[in-house]
C-alpha cells in the first residue's frame, strides 16, 4: 500500500521545532534521525507543486515507484508562492532531520538551499534536479539535455506547420528554459528555414509565476495563435496547461513538456491536439537516486540524462503523430545525428 506523507509549507516551522525537541542525548544535526530503521525518502516540489501535469508530477512518479518497488516511505513537501531561499532551507532541514534519505529538491531554485543544508547533514544524500552549480560529496546533480529533446520537437513542428509559424512559450526566462528555446528554434530552422518561430516568456525572475499560473500560458498561446502560429511548444510547468488548453480549443497542435502530457488525466480533454511532448526522465532519475542510497552506493556529482540514454526524448503516444511517417522519419534521423555527434544542439538562443 502506498504510504506518502504530504508536508505543506504551513506548519514546517512547528514541525522543525518538534523534531528538534525530540533530538535528545546531545545529537548533532548531522546524525539526527539516524536511529530510525525505516527506509524513508522525501521530495520537495518546485513552483506549482504536485498536480502540474508536468515536471513535479514526473518527480512524484519516481517517488511512487520507489515506494512500490523498494519499500520506501515517501514524504512530499509543497512550496509556497513567492517564498524565499530561507523557506527552502527550513523545508529541507525538516525533511533531513526527520531521517529521510535521500532528500530531493525538484528544480534549480533549490540549489542555494541544498548547498547550505547538505553541509549540515553529511550522512544524508541530497539530490537536486536541473542544477549542477552546487556540488558536494553528498549532493547528486540530476541534469538533462533538454535542448536535445527540444530540437526534436522543433523538427516535428517544422514538418507539421501549415502556416509556417510556430510558437515557443517559456515559463520564466532563466538559463534552463532558454535551453528549451534554443533547441526548439534550431530544430525548426535546420528542418525548414522559412518557418518563423515566435518566442515568448511569461515572467522574469524573481517572479516565478510563469511556472504556476495557467491563465498566463493561455493568454500567451492565444496571442501566438492570433499571429497565425499553428504549433505551440510550452516549457512552463503548470502554466503550460493553459497554453495546451488554448491551442487545443483552436484546433492547432500543442507540444507538451517534461511528462508525456498526452497521457496526463488533467489534460485528457485536450489530448487529441497534443501532438507530442518533450520528455525528461525525471521519474527514473528520482528512482535511481533512491535506489542508489538503498544499495549503499549513493550517487553524487553530475548525473546526466541525454538522448543517448533515453534520458530525454519525444513521446509518441498520440496515434495521430505516429501516423505521420514522414515526420517520424525526420525525427528519428535527427535523433541519430545528435547521438552520433553530427549535430550539436545549442544551449542558448
Output the keywords.
alpha/beta, 349 residues, seven-stranded parallel beta sheet, 20% strand
Description:
Helices cover 40% and strands 20% of the residues. The protein contains eleven helices and 13 strands. The chain is α/β, with parallel strands linked by helices and 349 residues long. The strands form two sheets. A seven-stranded parallel sheet has the order 1-3-2-4-5-6-12, with helices on both faces. Residues 8-36 have low confidence and may be disordered. The longest helix has 17 residues, at 175-191. The protein is globular. Helix 4 (111-120) links the parallel strand 4 (103-106) and strand 5. The chain starts with a strand and ends in a 10-residue tail after the last helix.
Largest sheet: 7 strands, parallel
| Uncertain parts | 8-36
Strand order of the largest sheet: 1-3-2-4-5-6-12
Helical run tally: 11
In short:
The chain has 349 residues and is of the alpha/beta class. The protein has helices spanning 12-22, 55-70, 85-97, 111-120, 146-160, 175-191, 214-226, 239-249, 282-294, 319-322, 325-339; strands at residues 4-7, 40-44, 73-77, 103-106, 126-129, 139-144, 165-172, 196-203, 231-235, 253-258, 274-280, 301-305, 312-314. The strands form 2 sheets. Strands 1-3-2-4-5-6-12 form a 7-stranded parallel β-sheet, sandwiched between helices. A 6-stranded mixed β-sheet has the order 8-7-9-10-11-13, sandwiched between helices.
Amino acid at each position: 500500500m502506498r504510504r506518502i506523507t504530504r508536508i505543506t509549507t504551513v506548519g514546517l516551522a512547528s514541525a522543525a521545532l518538534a523534531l528538534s525537541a525530540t533530538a535528545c542525548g546531545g545529537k548533532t544535526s548531522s546524525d539526527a534521525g539516524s536511529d530510525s530503521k525505516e527506509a524513508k525518502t522525501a521530495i520537495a516540489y518546485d513552483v506549482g507543486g504536485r498536480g502540474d501535469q508536468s515536471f513535479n508530477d514526473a518527480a512524484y512518479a519516481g517517488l511512487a515507484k520507489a515506494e512500490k518497488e523498494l519499500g520506501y516511505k515517501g514524504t512530499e513537501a509543497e512550496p509556497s508562492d513567492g517564498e524565499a531561499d530561507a523557506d527552502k532551507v527550513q523545508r529541507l532541514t525538516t525533511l533531513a532531520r526527520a531521517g529521510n534519505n535521500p532528500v530531493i529538491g525538484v528544480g534549480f531554485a533549490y540549489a542555494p538551499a541544498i548547498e547550505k543544508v547538505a553541509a549540515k547533514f553529511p550522512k544524508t544524500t541530497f539530490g537536486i534536479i536541473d542544477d549542477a552549480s552546487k556540488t558536494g560529496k553528498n549532493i547528486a546533480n540530476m541534469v538533462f539535455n533538454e535542448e536535445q529533446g527540444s530540437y526534436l520537437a522543433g523538427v516535428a513542428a517544422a514538418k507539421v506547420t501549415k502556416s509556417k509559424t510556430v510558437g515557443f512559450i517559456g515559463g520564466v526566462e532563466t538559463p534552463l528554459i532558454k535551453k528549451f528555446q534554443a533547441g526548439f528554434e534550431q530544430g525548426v530552422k535546420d528542418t525548414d528555414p522559412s518557418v518563423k518561430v515566435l518566442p515568448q516568456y511569461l515572467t522574469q525572475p524573481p517572479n516565478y509565476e510563469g511556472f504556476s499560473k495557467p491563465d498566463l500560458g493561455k493568454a500567451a498561446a492565444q496571442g501566438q495563435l492570433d499571429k497565425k502560429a499553428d504549433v505551440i511548444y510550452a516549457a512552463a510547468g503548470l502554466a503550460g496547461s493553459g497554453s495546451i488548453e488554448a491551442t487545443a480549443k483552436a484546433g492547432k497542435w500543442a507540444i507538451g513538456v517534461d511528462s508525456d502530457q498526452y497521457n496526463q488525466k488533467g489534460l485528457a480533454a485536450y489530448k487529441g491536439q497534443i501532438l507530442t511532448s518533450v520528455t525528461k526522465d525525471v521519474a527514473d532519475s528520482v528512482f535511481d537516486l533512491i535506489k542508489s542510497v538503498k544499495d549503499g552506493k549513493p550517487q553524487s556529482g553530475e548525473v546526466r540524462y541525454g538522448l543517448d540514454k533515453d534520458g530525454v526524448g519525444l513521446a509518441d503516444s498520440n496515434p495521430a503523430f505516429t501516423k505521420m511517417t514522414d515526420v517520424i522519419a525526420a525525427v528519428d534521423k535527427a535523433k541519430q545525428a545528435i547521438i552520433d555527434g553530427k549535430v550539436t544542439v545549442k544551449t542558448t538562443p
